[in-house]
Write a structure and sequence with these properties.
By secondary structure, the protein is mainly β. It contains one helix and 44 strands. This is Lipoprotein.
Length: 530
Amino acid sequence: MGGPLLPALLMAVLSLTLTGCPEEGVVCTSGLAVCGNACVDLSGDTANCGSCGNACGDGQSCQSGTCACRPGTESCDGTCVATATDVAHCGSCGNACPSGQVCESGTCREACSAGTARCGGSCIDVLADALNCGACGHACPDVQTCHAGRCAYDVVTACYTNGQLVGIQAGTDALGPRRQFGGGVQSLASWDGFVLAADATNSKLLQAAGGELGTIAEEDSLGSVASSPNDVFVDPPYVYVVDSVNNTLQVLKREGPSQGGGLGLRTVAQINLGPNTSPQAIAKWGSTLYVPLFGTAGSNFQQGNAVARVDVSNPEQPRKLDTLPLTGLDLKSFDGGTVLPLPYSATATDGGVYVALTNLNPYNNYLPNGPGMLARIDPSDGGVRAIDLGARDCLNAGYVEAVGGQLVVACLGEARLDRANGSRADSVRATGLVLVKDDVPVASYALSPGCEPGTEGCRVSVAGRFAVARGAVYLADTNSGRVFVVQVEDGKLVERRGYTTPQAQGPALDACPVDPRRPVSNAIDVTALP
């Protein structure tokens, strides 16, 4: 009879555990009350506040056994509201903000428009404000400005002989600190807040965030160890690079972000444009790339003096279409002797594709033997005609870019080199800028070194590539490392930083200081970050 008693007791205990004790059997610890089958804290339980079953309303909490509005809110007409942000009860009950205003910190204010944020009582565009870039209170360092919520320089110059990058603030033309970067950056481009720098020494396409010029965020191979990446052309999501030594067009695609935070580029195609073609630059019209072919002396320039057309309707399968010869143009030889077009750069506009012609005699120390010229290509039929830029203002047309409805051409000029002093230019003529409107030169700007050539310590300036930012040309000096700033107006070129006109706001920028160990300071390229 006594054997089954213990199991029966265990079953009874288990049954009580599963079903809960009846109310009269619940024993609670001190400070808790029995509500139903549970022990609750009547002083802080929102479902049983002060007494069992007394539930607090929305927005209330149980405080010392009494239902009250939660901290940060107060009761207005029996409803708990956040008076710091409620437009109907802003700062106090019943204080309604006028239509179109918002309640911030208990004060009615004009609403900030889309894309702005309230910073210190003002509506600030955190995508563009250098003192509040990306977030309130985040100020951009040195001369950087705010680009889409990220701090970056407006303009970046590559110093080839110094191995540095230097940033410039557009408008004020203030220089930032110089940063060592790569081994021999030859050409620049920009994309989505990054500077793309083609390094010929290391045969790599390097990337740096636009505000961190000394830090490589990503590097991508440019193939051969020996390379000369003459131009980088961005056409999202693709980047095109031409190599004038290996005669190639390389295509990279953005797949990022990369591990280092860069764009995440990957080479997806590469084609050879032909032996001894020496491609120099890239312009794009529709789905066709226009690539100036300079040619090589070893092949007597037979494969140059032309423009290759490459179909990139599928950028991952580029296809060379044909080659447009430039040798049929009237190059206006000075003495009826040898002169070759030797194209150097190109740009595409609504009116067609324009190619800068250096117009040199390669058999006479590459001296100009005709005026600097543009070749205008009609993409519809491939027709080519020449535009004479005028020998007085322009020799050796080297770089062209569209600025609004006009074209700006950089003329490298006729430089006389001091061979005994490391090929430094000791004199130069017809170097500077020419403005072209409706295919007619309308204005020019002559580059001046600010000293008398030939005098002790005077370094002449030789125009190179340029970038356009806020309507101004930032023109690189390939001999003395300066950057000249020239405002582009309708039919006018107005010097802002230089030595030509007394009205200039200051001297040219010493972007790439001269190294005493080297005779030349080559500011080789410039790019602008949008």
